[in-house]
Specification:
With about 300 residues, this protein is an all-alpha fold. Helices cover about 75% and strands about 0% of the residues.
Length: about 300
């Protein structure tokens, strides 16, 4: 009995909390492309970003203010650059989703899985571990198989939306690496980092909105269905997802963060199958299995050390 009492907490402490949180992030992000595409029917891109992150800022404000009074947010300035990167990501990603298909966007954004190990290698001046590259390659092959029915093997053409998504993928890779570099050892919780980032995105998008020719009516869509979509994206795809990403960056490597969150196309396909009733070919199912296999192996494997 004594041995069991000692073993249970030990097993609990070894649970990959950061990795499991990032998997949930991938699930929520997998649903976000179709939902964002639908939300953009009711408003403009800039107004959508202002609404999404403005709501996020308001929800997180009480927690940030409480921690600020306790002196727990003195390192806030180190999170500002990551907020600017996040603003750039959502501008590029949202414009991209507006101008391309949701499934094509999910494919292109997943290329951050391959970009991140190399951005990390440049930052740390160390070549990424072989297993990271192997899992990343398997994941991207899976995405190719998963989307082959729509994209075709010889008919992949890129429009302005696709280039925006590619830019967003590169910025995502820079995001996870810069977050780790700038906030390593800083006394700032993952939730407060998320709050600061949301504030920066809200202010930046609002300034861009004011300078554009957009109508103020775009900031208050009258359709109730829009607000249902908006609050889903705020709670699950923004607050939880960014918290999990910031937490993950603090507790694992940037390459694993990108790999685990890069599994979102597989979950997006599963969402489309269950919620939208879409069907998939054998090749697409094999692609989804490849992505999930790479994700599972990365989750179960111990922390990857960079090769010497």
């Amino acid at each position: 009995m004594k041995a069991q009492t000692l073993t249970t907490p030990s097993l609990f402490n070894r649970l990959p909390v950061a990795e499991l949180s990032l998997l949930l992030t991938a699930i929520f992000w997998g649903t976000s492309y179709g939902i964002t595409k639908e939300a953009l029917i009711y408003t403009s891109v800039l107004a959508f970003i202002v609404i999404r992150f403005g709501l996020t800022s308001l929800i997180l404000l009480p927690n940030f203010w409480r921690d600020h009074k306790k002196g727990l947010t003195k390192d806030w300035k180190y999170a500002l650059p990551t907020g600017l990167v996040l603003l750039s990501i959502f501008l590029a990603e949202t414009y991209g989703i507006f101008h391309t298909t949701a499934s094509k966007a999910a494919f292109l954004i997943s290329l951050c899985v391959l970009m991140t190990p190399f951005i990390e290698a440049i930052s740390h001046k160390q070549w990424p571990h072989r297993s990271v590259l192997g899992f990343a390659l398997l994941s991207v092959i899976g995405v190719l198989l998963l989307t082959q029915n729509e994209l075709g093997w010889g008919s992949l053409t890129l429009n302005i939306g696709d280039y925006c998504i590619l830019l967003a993928a590169l910025l995502r890779a820079c995001m996870v690496v810069s977050t780790q570099v700038l906030l390593k050892g800083k006394r700032l919780s993952a939730l407060n980092i998320t709050s600061i980032q949301a504030n920066v995105v809200t202010v930046g998008a609002l300034l861009a909105f004011v300078m554009s020719d957009a109508s103020l009516k775009d900031l208050v869509p009258a359709e109730g269905s829009f607000w249902v979509l908006a609050f889903y994206l705020v709670i699950f795809c923004t607050i939880f997802a960014l918290f999990a990403q910031n937490y993950g960056v603090k507790h694992t490597t940037p390459s694993r963060v990108a790999l685990l969150t890069g599994s979102e196309p597989a979950f997006g396909a599963l969402f489309a199958f269950i919620w939208l009733g879409e069907s998939f070919s054998t090749m697409q199912l094999i692609g989804g299995a490849c992505i999930l296999a790479a994700t599972l192996m990365a989750t179960l494997q111990g922390k990857m050390a960079p090769s010497q």
